[in-house]
Amino acid sequence: MMPGARTGLSPEWDRGFDAAFVELISHDHDFVDTEFTSLTTANWPAPPASPPAASSRQNQTRNDT
Question: What confidence score (pLDDT) does residue 15 get?
C-alpha cells in the first residue's frame, strides 16, 4: 500500500483526497502519456546507435582471405 498524502487532517480525508487525485489524473490519458514519456526520457539514455553497415569492399576482402 502506498503512503497517503498526509495532509494533517483525518486519515479518512487523506484517503478521499488520494482517491480523488488518482481519479483526476488517470482520466486524462494525454496527461498520463506525456508524463510517462517525460519521466522515461529523462531517466533512461537513448538506445545505442546501430553499427554502420559493412561496405561491399570490406565484405569482399573478408571473403578473399
Answer: 78
Measured distance between the N- and C-terminal CA atoms of the chain, rounded to whole angstroms: 64
Q: Count the residues in the chain.
A: 65
Q: Enter the pTM of the model.
A: 0.41
What tens digit of pLDDT does each residue of 1-21 get? 455 555 566 667 777 888 888
Question: Within 1-65, where are the H helices?
Answer: 11-26, 29-43, 56-64
Phi-psi domain of 6 (left: phi exceeds 0; alpha: psi -120 through 50; beta: other): left
* Set of cell numbers at residue 54: 559493412
- What SS3 state is found at 48? coil
Dihedral sign of CA atoms 23, 29, 31, 34 in order? positive
